[in-house]
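Sample A.
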Amino acid sequence: MSPLLSMMGLSFKKTIWAFLATILVLGGIAAANPAEAQGSAEKRMALVVGNAAYKAGALPTPANDAGLIAQTLQAAGFDVIGARDLDQNDLRDAMRDFLTKANAAGPNTVVFVYLAGYGVQYQGDNYFVPVDAQMANATDVPVQAIRISDFTKSLSALNNRGSIVVLDAARANPFVKSDQPLAGGLALVDPDTNQLIAFNAAPGTVAPQEAGPYGSYAHALAEMIRVGGLSLDDVFDRTRLRVSDLTKGAEISWDASKFKNAFNFFDRGPDAPAVAVSTADAVANRTKPIRDFDERDAYFAALDRDTLQGYEDFLAAYPDDSMARRVRAIVAARREAITWRETWRDDTPQAYWSYLRRYPHGPHMWDARRRLEHLEAALEPPPSFAVIEYDVPPPPPPEIVYVDRPVLYFDDADFGYAPPPPVVFLAPPPPDFVVLAPPQPAVDLYVLPAPIFVPVPAWVEPPRDIAPPENNIIFNNIHNTVVNNTTVINNNNTVVNENGAAPAAPGLTTGQKLAGAAVLAGAGAAALHVALPPSVQKKAAVLQKQNPAAAAKATPGAAPAVAPSAQPQSGNTAAHALPGANGQPLPAAGKLPGNPGAAQAKPGQAPQAAPNGVHNPAVATQPVQPCANANANANAHALPGSKGQPLPPAGNLPAGKGQNQIAKTPAPQAAPGGKPNPVAAAPKPNAHGQPMKPATPPAAVARAPVKPPAAAKSQPHVAAAPPRRAPAAVSQPKPAPHVVEQARAPAPKPQAQPRPQPQPKVEQQARRQPPPPPKPQEKRKCGAPGLPACH
């Protein structure tokens, strides 16, 4: 071999070894840090819709249910967008916005969709109904409602970690009341790839109507999401058991999953107590033969598995049990749903004839006849017709009575009421999650109600390796109680302002602290709100800008809306301004804003208290007392700002009860040291409705005797003095009692007058108001015994 070839061969070997070393180094880095090798942290996104204000019949719980699920998902680190009471165009636009956002989020994203309202099935597909839908005939369904399979297929086509679709929509609907009705409930469907789909009620059945404030399914699902360490399948299996517990068996939820990746809503901390139902117990309960359980546990073992085989095993082992009739109804509905799904998949005249042969009066009878008409086939099969053998056997006669019902409920007393599940299957609910307080009504168009957040246990930890959205206050405070839109009370009962505002002054009551924090929060109030989809947000801004009064009635059942700001906001920082902020109108006297933590205004309270509270929360949260003699002379003393009266300048409050008592004493006498009492010398409103000049707040009087020069400096608004009306007061035959008392008091001595100040406006006002001369005093005393008559 020549020297040149030898050198080339040596160089080539070195190159190969260097390349292999580089591969090994990169492989070691990837093995040492698998999270970085797989990509960025997991992202979580959710779309939540609650339709309640239907034109065809309003529902009491879906909007609240959507708010509860949205808040729970926020705590689990989801970037949630949601809305309530969407019409067809808004619903389509919101879904399109969400698909665009989810597609841009990347492959490491988990998607959650929750739709609450009316759902219907039509010819094998499920539809979610907008609030403006009007469906008199079955053929109106594809035109008036949104087909869910189109949306789920689009979600499945995204390159992400998986999607979860929850339809809380299986209800007895008021649509299609013709002689060819729709089948009840939702249709049995298979989830798409890497997807879980869940219903609030089993296919072919409907949930009972509930008064609220929340539906049993949303309540149970929110509880199970908050349990740390549960897998996705365990969350929905335990939700089914809890729903049965809350409704005494009247509602049985359902889910089917092809979700491939491991997923936990929350993690379980190392200091967590022992679980009542361990993973090993759960596996044993699902693998143990049904006949090996006693009668009570056998029912819950079958319900936990929620398979047709499990229910049939229960009937074979305990045919005379008190739950046997209920289980027979469940089996009948499941068999019919499976038969119809296979019929719809085949979509041939033979398949529809076979269905009608099994269920001549079944819930999908009219769907089968409509399809036969569409296929131009006869309703009756030919004599040579061969019935298709389905995967499930024909229903026995005892089951026909259930599937022949137009709508199948499980709240019938004939089925028997299910007892609470044993602890071996499901632990009791947390004490603070048994009864949930209703949320405050939503005050903005399309905005979901915001329930009061119930803290998760201390041993429940936020999920690891996720990228939560910015400004997610609930995620950062899952162990704290959210009191209002801007304030969080932690376990030590201290106020935390998430927008960075200073805490309220010490020595105040809890209510005063919350009110002060709400005023200080300002634009940070949007942090706890669920952001609207961009298209819905733009529409809400346009409606409120064009006609704020009509915007509140744009959606049936919508709460009065607050006028929006000039520019629409987006994302989680979409601001819902407090009343009076950013040019927003103040609420009328005696009406409270829809904010659970905001200070409640008393009737007659000056509307300028909030601006003062921005600078001094201690003063802002003090209760404002009524004006002097406001109750006794309501007709004579108009409130500031009413009936054309001028409002007192910002930062000044009307006189309180304590001030009125001081003014009634012979206080015009000089205080010790020859200094007058500025509170006693404050003018009072007379019987002619003359504007009442604002007096010094009681808190300012209690601190220290204020010198007249200091008082003049602290109240520059005194320069705008009202005109004198002394002659009118003289001609009044029956002056107000406090006017008489003030007139009887001797005039202040010259040495008690305030010394000249560098503010000429204050001096000018002092010169314009000389003490009343003695002559009018004599005229005011006319008519008394021993005095001349009044003229």
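Sample B, a different protein:
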Amino acid sequence: MAGRDLRALFSTNEVALETSEAFTNREAQWAAVADALTEHLQTLTRPGIDPEDLEAPRRNLLVFHGVGGIGKSTLSRALEAALTDTERRPAQWGAPSWPRQARILPIRIDLARSTGVDFERIVLTLRLALAQLGRPLPAFDLALRRYWAHNHPGEPLEEYLRRTGLGAAVNKALPEQIQAAAGEVAAALLLPGFVGSALGQVTNTVVTALRERRQTVKALAGCIRLADLLEAEPDVDALSYYPHLLAWEIARLPAKKAVLPVVLLDTFEDTGDRTHRDLERLLQRMVWLMPNAFFVVTGRSRLQWADPALHGQLDYTGPAAWPALNTPTYSPTTAGSAGGRQMLVGDFSLEDSDDYLARRLTRNQQPLIGPEVRAVIAARSHGLPLYLDLSVMRFLELRRQGATPEPADFDADFPALIARTLRDLTPDERHVLRSVALLDAFDIPLATAAAGLDREAPVLRLIERPFVQDDPAALWPHHLHALIRSTVRTADDQADDRWSPTDWQHAAERAFTALGSQANGADQNRRLLVGCLRQGLRLARDFRLALGWLADAAWHYVSDSVWEPIAPPSPSTAVAGTSLRTAADALVELLSALARRQHEHREHTVARLTTVIDAALLPAALQEMAVYYRAKADRDLGHGAASHAGMQQVADGGGRLAAAARRGLAHSARLAGDFPAALAAAQHLGWEGRQNRVLGDIYWIQGDMNRATDAYTAARADAEQHQLSGEHAHAQTYLAFATAFSSPEAAEHEIALAEQYLSGLALRANRLMLSIAALLRDAGTNDLGERARTLRADIHAAGLDAALAATLELVMAFHHAARGSDAGVNASIVRLRELTGNGDYTYYIDIAHFMAGLPLPESASPARWLEGDQVTRRRWHALVTARRNHLGLA
């Protein structure tokens, strides 16, 4: 309901101030339906009502809108039940005021994407419901018969209905009625072979008879637009005009068969968004063309059909077309010809919150609350109407005190929200509410443990409350309304049973322990592990808890190199640049830096990890983690000495990352060109040190692609055996790269497989490496310069110049050598000299000479090749020759 906001009215001396207030409850919504249907039935009994009138304004519509999970679908189903059978009407809903003899036919259609409903199924659903009348609807049925034959050749309608389960109870009645309609027309036109006749011939015969107004088709001749619809191309656009034929048929039903279809369109938000309105346009056309039916729409936002700005996107727009939609909120006091037909169910969307505030207080029909203030209030409200109401009162209070309300005045919570939230809860439910306010999301066991209860009943009661929202697909299916949660946590709680700081601390410890119990069983459930880490890190940070189970969870997190975003939001009291104070602060920063390095420049990663290391707040094992990953970032940046020192420190420590650090030292030897030393170090790495992958890295540099691909294949098998998706993708990426040197056809498959493995993983370096592999696959073909320039920019932006830029230039040298372009090879060599100036990868310059058959310069690298430089030269030159032969360039 909506009416005068007396509280606001009596808060100011401004008599010119106009106020309105909105309330929401299910009884009011039923009353809205009852009133609207009663009015519509009365309208249909008036003389002069013509369903073929396409110009009269439409009021055959009622809209319920609100945020997801507020109960709109439940309301839609309850309305369907109440309209179907009065015995199923909730007890608190009053009896409707329409005449008892009125026959209401509810037709509920769920428009959710998950149901796969398209416009064709919507129209069929309408016709199937009307099949309950037990009679053909010839005008519509003829058009539908033509549409079906054109769009579903060879598929009987009955078979389609059976297969899809659409209208199972009447799926035989509709085809029979359509057949009967065809038979009636056949008899009237003396066409005994009508049903079996060619569809085009039949259509032409019917259209000719209609145009000539023959007495034989007198029953159909009254439908003045039937001939036009039968002549139109029978596509979906034409189908969207067929509801006009349904309206005509409904209007000519005999009194004993008269019926009012009430179409309940649920989940309307899934018809598209406010940019893409294709399905919405068809649905709006259906509503407009059936003025003697009534439509109840439920969706997340109010319909904008009365907005003239939508002209061109929709067929019928503006306040003159939809006077009932021009008023934003339904009100029984204005439910007549000038009243509104849109009603809020629960929360507002952001845009509707702004619209609500703009309309709530007005002077001379202009919003009293400015756009900047409205934006702050709407954002903080999270769509909760109560918050909007309280903000309006605060706005008036500030003005009464002589102040000009500013956006900063509304960056606060209202303690009144707590009182109104708690007042209907039992003491146990209040206890659970405060406990779960510490959690981003929860399930019943987690909430029970966090509250320290030995029974679930209070939790089960709490999750039925409207401020607890559900997401069945989420890791934990329940979460508090965002505004309620923040208010319970931060506002000045004046309730009799309010918690002390110690109470909150104990609750945080219980919630932390409960999350740890779930995390300890998450070895094979990474999604659960990450979820527990996110929530546990925030609790440990905000309440200064000991790390406990977080240490082991952190190790599980880094073990697979997937790098999901992990850092919880900063607390509202946090100050930018605040130094680390606790081990939890340091662990949050450590894991955040590791995850964000896939999206940030490696220099930033090094700086963040250095801050963690210098703080010295972490236990030794986690401190080692920070040192190791800083060493990796240093290597990517070309800081060879710093990287080697960090890896040596971790290897000497003998901890969990010692094997990985030894791999890092092997990489250092490889980068320096000491391949025998790198190979010797690799022989003792084992699975923990990713031995096979390191061997592949060594062998491809020697030009030995067979041994390299064998090693990478073994590395991939190792990762698959240990169920590590990040390592699996890494090995596959490098397998694709090595394969691309020797076999472009095989590389096509390996690259596609790597793309599949990388899907959903935040592995930026591997994605860039895969782009290099794709470039290598195409080496020797057309000009690859533009692709290479784009890749160079992406690599530089990631801070991976030292790790990947030189590899990219080596691939370009291979491309130019295959094309026989000495100038191109020399240009790549010049860039390689610039990129390898720190001493790493200098042997790439030698390889470029090997590829092109050029003699080594006097400044050749000090590389120690495994089988000597001549064997290596022959292998690389053979790869180039094979590519030239493959492309017909020899």
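Observation for Sample B: Residues 34 and 96 are 5 Å apart (CA to CA).
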